[in-house]
Specification:
The protein is mostly beta strands. The chain contains four helices and 22 strands. The strands form four sheets. Strands 3-2-1-5-8-7 form a six-stranded antiparallel beta sheet, with no helix packed on it.
Length: about 325
């Protein structure tokens, strides 16, 4: 006959074993078999790491410009490790990460400083040249803010640019930064630097619109004056008074019928027509001439009538198993009394 003491000890042993089985494997044990570094300007592998060494090299960085590098991490099981997309990475309201990892970069220990600046975008990194020279960097795999794997160091070279400066638009204006403002809350929702975006546009509800303002900054640090709405819509305004127009269009090849676009001179409206995703390009105009365009950025339209019902919270299988085992032990104990 089982004693009460034996019953308690058995229950404690079972609970400890099941609890240990339910604990996920620590991220510190992450194993990376290989890492491919991708030059995103040509979408080709430029360097790859195997075991404990590198093959290939990183692209040369031009002083004052940057290179954009993607990565493919392969785990011990031969499968690619999922990386967090940039829009999720920059979504400040994302809460807990959904299991995706972050690709990051740092200067190698003891490497020369002041040669490059490094920026993480979740699934890719930017290496910007500050001054001519050579330094070394280390690529990292992170889970949240915790580094779970690092590569050996690899060299990166920065040199001065001897080619003429690229002319933007018709050459009358060069834009270094564009901030898109959600006018409903008067806050920056996305900003464009050089050739890429940070942040995202607000989700558009079908049948309604979002109102977006803009702040263009030239390479000289000057703000570009935008034409006010009442002047823009005045048919008798004659010649424009030096102000520019903020406009928007669908990106080339982007899905049509998702949004309707309207220019108001110093802001634009994006109205949702049907559920889906498309891409936009923001423009700076002088009269009817486009003098600058941004890279494309996605916009999402949601139909509230098509929203799925909230899912019932899933019961943790670990606790359910514990409860079942506990009940079984009680039955066994009662039957032996």
């Amino acid at each position: 006959m089982i004693t009460y003491r034996q019953f308690i000890l058995t229950c404690i042993t079972v609970i400890l074993v099941v609890t240990l089985l339910c604990i996920p494997v620590s991220a510190d044990r992450m194993t990376v078999e290989s890492l491919e570094i991708i030059d995103r300007s040509v979408r080709e592998v430029t360097a790859d790491y195997h075991v404990d060494h590198w093959h290939g090299r990183l692209p040369v960085v031009i002083q004052g410009k940057h290179i954009s590098l993607g990565a493919v991490f392969t785990g011990a099981d031969g499968k690619a490790i999922p990386l967090m997309e940039e829009d999720t990475f920059y979504d400040t309201g994302r809460g807990t990460f959904t299991g995706d990892y972050i690709f990051n970069v740092r200067l190698a220990d003891g490497a020369p400083t002041g040669i490059v600046t490094l920026l993480c975008h979740g699934d890719h990194v930017h290496v910007r040249g500050q001054q001519a020279g050579e330094t070394n960097i280390v690529f990292q795999l992170q889970e949240d803010d915790k580094v779970v794997w690092e590569s050996p160091s690899i060299g990166v070279n920065v040199r001065k640019d001897d080619t003429p400066t690229e002319i933007v638009g018709d050459g009358t204006i060069q834009i270094a930064e564009l901030k898109i403002i959600d006018r409903s809350v008067r806050e920056v929702t996305a900003d464009h630097h050089f050739d890429h975006w940070h942040g995202r546009l607000p989700v558009v509800t079908k049948g309604t619109h979002i109102s977006l303002g803009a702040e263009f900054t030239t390479e000289d640090g000057e703000k570009v004056p935008l034409m006010e709405e009442d002047i823009f819509y005045d048919p008798g305004r004659g010649v424009f008074t030096g102000a520019y127009i903020f406009n928007v269009r669908l990106a080339d090849g982007a899905p049509r019928g998702i949004v309707e676009l309207l220019c108001h001179g110093d802001h634009v409206h994006v109205r949702g027509q049907q559920d889906g995703r498309t891409a936009l390009v923001f423009m700076l105009q002088r009269d009817d001439d486009v003098v600058w365009e941004s890279a494309e950025i996605n916009v999402m339209v949601e139909d509230p009538d098509m929203a799925p019902a909230p899912a019932e919270p899933a019961e943790s299988p670990g606790f359910g198993l514990l409860a079942a085992l506990g009940g079984l032990m009680v039955v066994i104990y009662a039957s032996r009394r």
